[in-house]
Write a structure and sequence with these properties.
about 190 residues; alpha/beta; eight-stranded mixed β-sheet; two-stranded antiparallel ribbon; 5 helices; about 30% strand; globular
Length: about 190
């Protein structure tokens, strides 16, 4: 059975975004997670609220890799450009009961978490659960997430968007910890073992 791996970049106080919903402290999204992003997965799952911004962000990186990105105010990194090409050809499943269509050519709609569970049972590589936090919390509560990868930044955001919206308590098993540059840590947890 395929694994579902949720991965997020968060502040030390557990925020995935500031008051405006964006993590302005993150310079590059795909960096720091390691090679599993492009070698271990062949599908991505994200929520309907998160999907439009995700598609706009990565479509823009792919179309204009050497230009300042309007969302970040920076030129995309080499890892960003690599991910944008990978994302453009990788199937993305958008979990939604309200969307009728998606515009990205490789995006598909799944109506609920039962469809995500069915996807997990199919043959293939692992699945990357990108977000957002509502979907991640629901998928964790449903027992669908096998691993949680966190990059923790040495920053207290204060007012911001909390990552975890889980409704129940879940024990995590620390599989790996790695200190990264600039005081960041990479944490890999197993869930529900």
């Amino acid at each position: 059975m395929r694994k579902i791996i949720a991965a997020f970049k968060i502040s030390a106080d557990g925020k995935y975004g500031g008051p405006d919903g964006y993590a302005d402290w993150v310079e590059s999204w795909p960096e720091d997670f390691g090679s599993w992003l492009t070698t271990q997965i062949d599908a991505c799952v994200l929520g309907a609220e998160f999907y439009p911004l995700y598609e706009q962000y990565w479509s823009r990186v792919e179309a204009a890799p050497n230009e300042i990105h309007p969302f970040s105010g920076r030129v995309p990194t080499a890892a960003d450009v690599e991910w944008s090409g990978f994302a453009a050809k990788t199937t993305h499943y958008v979990v939604s009961r309200t969307l009728d269509s998606v515009t990205w050519p490789n995006a598909r709609i799944l109506t609920d978490l039962d469809a995500v569970a069915a996807l997990k049972r199919e043959q293939g590589k692992d699945i990357y659960l990108i977000g957002g936090p509502t979907l991640a919390g629901a998928a964790i509560d449903a027992g669908l997430v096998d691993e949680l990868h966190l990059i923790v930044y040495p920053l207290i955001v204060g007012e911001g968007k909390a990552l975890f919206s889980s409704t129940t308590r879940h024990a995590l098993e620390l599989d790996k910890i790695e200190q990264l540059a600039d005081g960041r840590f990479s944490l890999v947890y197993g869930i529900g073992r």
